[in-house]
Amino acid sequence: MIKSNYRSLYDQEIEQLKAQGCTAYDWVQIIIRNDTQIQYIQSVTFSGSVMIGALERTFRLPGGAIVHSGIYNSIIHNATIGDNCYIASITNGLSNYTVGNDCFISNVDIISVTHLTSFGNMTEVACLDETGGRTVSINTELSSQLAYIKAMYRYRPELITALNRLSLDYTEEVKSSRGTIGAHSYIVRSGSIINTNIGDSVNIKGAARLHNGTIVSSSKAPVHIGDGVICEDFIIHSGSFLDENTILTRCFVGQSCELRRNYVATDSLFFANSQGENGEACSVFSGPYTVTHHKSTLLIAGMFSFMNAGSGSNQSNHMYKLGPVHEGFLERGCKLSSDSYVMWPSYVGAFSLVMGRHINHSDSSKFPFSYLLSENEQTVLVPGVNLRSISIFRDTLKWRKRDRRTDERLMDQINFELLSPFTIQGMERGIHKLRTLLETSGEESDWFNYKGCKISNRGLLRGIKYYQMGLNIFMGNALLNRLEKYGKDITFSLSECLVPESTKGLGDWLDISGMFAPKELIEDLLKSVENCEISSLREINEVFEDIHQHYYDYAWNWTLHLIYRYYHIEEKDLTIGFVKKIITQWLESSIQLDKMMLEDAFKEFNKTSQVGFGIDGGKVEKSMDFSVVRGNYNDHELVKQLRLGMLNKHRRSEIMLQRLSLLVED
């Protein structure tokens, strides 16, 4: 059907195009707008049905040269060209595409849809289990949370069948024998682009090969694909940046990820704000904020989020028996130090630091905020000690600042809280397990064995202390936040203030690849999927978003019952006096932990850290050089923020204790 403002070519226009070096298999199938200026169509070979829009604008190239919109020195087959596009030197043709308005496409080998295709949707990605046991079919509706469910809930076959059916339904909707290039896209100096859908405002500059994929992009969150990039069987989401010979095979790239400098990935999923440079990924589930920068680093068959991999860190999923079938799980916030090695299967608790070589298949899932050290080929677990690290404080600040997503629709639900029902639940279980080890093995024992780890007596006792501090801080802070919702009102009823709005969230909590959620609500969602009560992948993502938006309500419900459980009290016992006690303990633990972090930060300014400074001078020059380059301890931004935070905590406590003193018991 021809649009009302489009028409066939007049005979004189056909003759003019021929004079300008153009040919056509059938001129009747060439349709132009009423006002199309055909003098800007030169040396073009047409075949099939072609529709051409207005050619009115100019483009300014880097360096200042100006070119007029038009079609030059190209082969065009079965294509719709939007208004004001510049298309030049498409050597082997632009075939079976609809090109949006204001696109600039120049010096490309081929852009073609060769058959009915799903543009990378439904590509099977063998994440975690390299042999395919946890395969995730990717599509443009895939979120970090949805992928987590697909990969980790294989023990629920009805659920996986239902999810696969919804994925197939979605794939059928996007299948086409015609591709799209969105408005304002810029494609230059590139090789072959085959069976690839391209969104709005995409910048492709020097890509080598893009085969069977979809690039989701918009003017608010454009995608950049640069020199030497090769992608095959892929989905790339909005705001992402791929450059400098990155090679992806069967991969999903979520919103605002960065992959560059020869990064190579196979059968891997990368979710929001993840970064990969120089190294390699194979069968990896990279949840939000997974970061690896170093050439010698291999990530393989692991699940990560909020993770940083040091230089030379790697893992092994192959014990040379039944193939590369093993996998590992690092909960959020873990760090792999330089030259660390972990033999899968292993499980590392949240916000832990892994140093050295680990071959004992350890499980520290009940011990968040820990160190895993290597000593004589044994894994030494130091529970809770990472809670006092200044790096933890730094990470909680940087993650929020480094959220580069600008799309109107955020695919992944991300919770940045350091202390949450999920991590506190881990601390609570850690205390119980450490006390059980103490009772079972005896207080006189020097070492305790636990699931491939060794824990020293001193480390065990300190772990209980750190976890108790964490619980005190979490409960007191949640209580203060709840009370502060009432502003300066000193007439509120304490019981009315503390009563939860619902009973949701009282049980176990999960970290669904970046999102904290009550297990019961995830269970309700999964049952709805199994019972065919949910009709699309988007609807599942909307449920995840709703759970995420109500996090603080659900978290308070859980925290209130934690208070009852931890202090062995009932609702009637949570009096004004008891609330004051909790706030006082919060202040003591918070200040104590902040002081530990300040001490940890000071280590970066001690004499050892000054080695190599003032290289040709004496002690004075060494100190001066260090001060100029690194700054002073007291002037460091994190130190100042910690100290200011300590003052604010004292102020918060004083104000609330005064308000509570004016209340009358219910």
Description:
The chain is α/β, with parallel strands linked by helices. Among the domains are: 1-112, no CATH class; 576-661. It is 31% helix and 27% strand. The protein has 13 helices and 42 strands. The strands form five sheets. It has a 33-stranded mixed beta sheet that branches. Strands 30-33-36 form a three-stranded parallel beta sheet, with no helix packed on it. Strands 5-6 form a two-stranded antiparallel ribbon. Strand 37 (371-375) and strand 38 form a beta hairpin. Helix 3 packs across helix 8, helix 6 packs across helix 11 and helix 8 (519-530) runs antiparallel to helix 9.
Using brief descriptors, characterize the structure shown.
666 residues; 33-stranded mixed beta sheet; elongated; alpha/beta; three-stranded parallel beta sheet
